[in-house]
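Researcher: Structure for this, please.
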Amino acid sequence: MPKKSKKKNVTRSKDDDDDEQLPSKQRRVEQSDTPSTLCFDSPASLFESLVQPVGTEQFFREYWEKKPLHLQRSDNSTASYYQSLFQLSDLQRLCSQGLQYYRDINVVRCINGKKKVLNRDGGVKSSILSRNLVQNKATIQFHQPQRFKDELWRIQEKLECFFGALVGSNVYITPQESQGLPAHYDDVEVFILQLEGRKRWRLYSPTVPLAAEYSVESEEKIGSPTHDFILEAGDLLYFPRGTIHQANTPAGVDHSTHLTLSTYQRMSWGDLLLDIFPSMLCDSSRTDVSLREGIHRRLLLTSIEGQDTSRLAAYLRSLADEMDKGMQTFRSTHMKRDFIINRLPPYSQQQLLTPSGSIPTLEDTVCLRFKDHMVITVEPNQEKTDEAAVLVVIVLHSLKNQRENHMMGESGEEEEEQNISRGLQFPLSHLQALQQLQQAEQLAVAQLQLPTQEAKLSLVLALWCESLLHVL
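Model: Predicted structure, token format:
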């Protein structure tokens, strides 16, 4: 599940002339009129409707990170809605929009337990994709369709709010009697929605429970499947990261189309510790002179053992004691920043980028907008000065993120700096007032815990100008 992206200019290949060119105002697949069977009232209601009839509490108690779940749906309304999310005809129309092999499309087939990639260079042509499906029995893997399909944007944006983590997707279109990928496991939690046709799935016990990376496993190593079933249109399948799986389209089915929704990549407790430990050690070093003492000469040329190991263990125990006593502040800066900078913007963002309501005054009552799309971090001021770094409060949000770049690879330094510049910076003294706004449904500006009226007004004006505050 790749993260971040660097925006690239896409040029349409001259060889694509046999694909119908869409008018410039129809750059995305048009929205379907099929009624939704999901509830979009809130992130929680969206997830609950996705996994019904299993309740949310039951799902996380019995299945999440534990075992697979296959939900069979016999109603035509769910099958019709799932099909409207993405189908083969959508992909054929999208070929006129400058799709590129590797970046947008992979053409693959599993032969004798090995993945064979049939990609070409340059732009994707609909006629060539059709030929690969029919003649080569290849699977078409389409990356991140939420960039083009509004309903998938709507679903994944809500799921990112629900999980507090990035949610990517891929579409797989596989012809009959064919398999696209060999048996493998992923480093993400996977939800599979069967959109068209039928597909046989075989799942196996993990060789690496809750795996932190992707890997292919040999048939000899994985043993017999623990689950073997057919997904019908409208069905949903969930399995935890590390679950070994493979799937093929049975005979008699023209083609199968399924959507994978994936999340929780690098979201473990270990990842969180890697994120918060540097700042905790830095804070401790400011007050504990023993942490600032130099290591032994030539230590880097030898192994760390004996008394050196004991000394490091003592530092860690002391740090753990301070954490238990509430003497340490936890700052998950990098994970928060990575999430908010790379996630989807709010659905229908073009209506959200102007301030809401009247300009706030000291007499007003206000509330935050898009709480699920903003994070507050405390980090050292990045301004270059000769003085020691001071901590500042940064408010980051995803209102101006580019949907077209979502989950499309590593972003360059220039783009990341541009994203960071979207944040608002405040003195550390403003942290409590910002937390007040986060926790309250509504709050009088006069009640903000800041020392002066000027500071209160300055804070709400900054948030209002960034479209993060609404005046009631």
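Researcher: Any notable elements?
Model: DSSP finds 13 helices and 19 strands in the chain. The two ends are 40 Å apart (CA to CA).
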